[in-house]
Amino acid sequence: MPELVAARRFAGKRLVVATHNQGKLAEIADLIRPFGVDALSAGALGLAEPEETGNSFEANARLKAEAAMLASGLPALADDSGLVVPALGGEPGIYSARWAGPARDFALAMETVEARLACIQDRRASFVAVLALAWPDRHCELFRGEVHGHLVWPPRGALGFGYDPMFQPTGHALTFGEMPPAAKHRMSHRARAFAALVAACFGDRAVLRGAGLD
């Protein structure tokens, strides 16, 4: 039986958020703020975006976190997330951003999803997020979160980003694109992954209630 190893506590004051996506950066920065950690974006530091060559959310999150950590010399947090649609064989999945094309046109990406779902009644979908926290000594922790729901058309709401306007979480009348950020943060896939990260790595710095993740 393998030995269980406790997660490493994060004791620093600065953390590189390995993303150039402003929506994702704002969401992660909001989640980090209650713990007294300054979030430095990879974009502001001039760090290049590595090619995402992994075959899973976990592999890509780790790849991005380690690249930012090596380039900056600081602990780095990366997220790999996407929309998983069972009727499309799990697509777009890890290729969710690529469906938006070089211009990051998520209106086009949502139209592509809707076109491929034509005549398909099963509109179940999930958002998946994996957070990777990498330290300069190459230690890395991984945390996964999921939220389930279904896809609506046409998209609703101008809040959020990515596929949010077409995703309606189970048990709620609003899409992620219609929800105020605080409401989304309490239940999103990223918030759930972050709750696991907080419990493991920030548990001695603040309670989950302070981050709105209770």
What are the key terms here?
about 210 residues; alpha/beta; Maf protein; 6 strands; disordered C terminus
Walk me through this protein's architecture.
This protein is α/β, with parallel strands linked by helices. It has a single domain, classed as Maf protein (Alpha-Beta Complex). It is 27% helix and 20% strand. The chain has helices at 22-32, 57-72, 106-116, 181-185, 189-202; strands at 14-17, 38-41, 76-84, 124-134, 140-151, 167-169. The protein has a six-stranded mixed β-sheet. It is globular, with a radius of gyration of 17 Å.
Detail the topology: elements first, then pairings.
Elements: E1 14-17, H1 22-32, E2 38-41, H2 57-72, E3 76-84, H3 106-116, E4 124-134, E5 140-151, E6 167-169, H4 181-185, H5 189-202
Parallel strand pairs: 1-2, 1-3
Antiparallel strand pairs: 3-4, 4-5, 5-6
**Unreliable residue stretches:** 1-5, 205-214
* CATH domain fold name: Maf protein
Helix/strand/pairing category:
alpha/beta
Tell me the helix content. 25-40%
- The CATH architecture is Alpha-Beta Complex
Mean pLDDT: 87
| Rg from Cα | 17 Å
Instruction: Count the E strands.
Output: 6
Cross-sheet strand order for the largest sheet: 2-1-3-4-5-6
> What does the largest sheet look like?
6 strands, mixed
* Straight-line distance between termini: 33 Å
CATH class: Alpha Beta
> Count of helical segments?
5
- What's the overall geometry? globular
Instruction: Work out the count of structural domains.
Output: 1
Order of helices and strands: EHEHEHEEEHH
**Beta-strand fraction estimate:** 15-25%
